[in-house]
Design a protein that fits this description.
Helices cover 33% and strands 26% of the residues.
């Protein structure tokens, strides 16, 4: 049902300068795989095989990563290292990849709107690759959300509880619980002050959006920081019909921050050591 996952990947990654001066932040590795690889893995696990990327200047490494490297493959063919390319070969075999560019950084809402030609008139997933999610107890976050979409057929956003002092770093939602982990949204605020936050439920980088979101974004005025906020567009959906927030099962690392990136690296390193025992 959900055929396309959109990856907004045009940001500058300034928190990782100078590395991101020439390396897209989505290509920063967690052990041997870049962040974007984990995101595509999650989408493919959810039954999605059309991967659409909104990129910008200096992001050619993303396109090159999801393409065959003839010189490299020739050099290591038949060697003990050839197996290291098995995972990326499988992704290239099982997915299609399309790319477009965001002309200027006008917010996540504008980035998603830029991907309209790649998505077409259908519901689609959105993954922000620097939010690295894992669920060792079961399905990945996007797989969980696809099942919810199949039941409710509306926009779904993933949320998690954060410390009250951290709410100004996130989009925050509130609403009425309809199931243990599902909330019908009645309010969304982008990066509110602590005393303005309607809850401590923070949006993370996983969405399923219905195609009417594009016309809503088109008519959404710039909000916080002069950017077109996807939270404002989803709030319009919530007012005119229904939008649902989902407290996902699993663990999330904010790899857009140095602390979160270091924590993810340590987590996956320990996991690798345990798996090898």
């Amino acid at each position: 049902m959900i055929q396309t996952c959109l990856f907004p990947a045009a940001g500058y990654g300034t928190r990782f300068l100078p590395a991101t001066k020439s390396l897209p932040k989505e290509m920063l590795p967690i052990l041997t795989k870049p962040l974007i690889h984990y995101g595509v893995d999650e989408a493919l696990e959810a039954g999605i095989n059309n991967m659409a990327f909104v990129t910008g200047r200096g992001k050619r490494a993303l396109e090159d990563y999801f393409d065959k490297s003839y010189e490299l493959e020739e050099q290591i063919a038949g060697s003990s290292k050839e197996y290291l390319l098995t995972e990326i070969r499988e992704l290239i075999k099982n997915c299609t990849f399309s790319f477009t560019r965001q002309e200027s950084m006008k917010g996540l809402g504008d980035a998603i709107y830029t991907g309209r030609t790649l998505v077409r008139d259908e519901p689609f997933g959105v993954i922000l690759a620097d939010d690295l999610c894992i669920n060792e107890e079961g399905e990945g976050v996007l797989s969980q959300m696809v099942k919810i979409y199949e039941k409710y057929r509306c926009s779904i956003i993933a949320v998690m509880e954060v410390d009250k002092q951290q709410v100004s770093n996130y989009g925050i939602v509130s609403g009425k619980f309809i199931e243990d982990d599902l909330i019908i949204i009645d309010n969304m605020i982008e990066k509110p002050n602590v005393n303005e936050a309607p809850s401590n439920l923070a949006i993370i980088g996983r969405y399923i959006l219905t195609p009417d979101i594009f016309e809503i974004i088109k008519n959404t005025k710039p909000g916080k920081n002069g950017e077109i906020q996807i939270t404002d567009a989803i709030m319009t959906q919530a007012k005119n019909g229904i939008a649902i927030a989902y407290k996902f099962k699993g663990k999330r690392f904010d790899c857009g921050s140095v602390d979160g990136y270091a924590q993810a690296t340590q987590y996956f390193y320990e996991k690798l050591k345990n798996d090898c025992k």
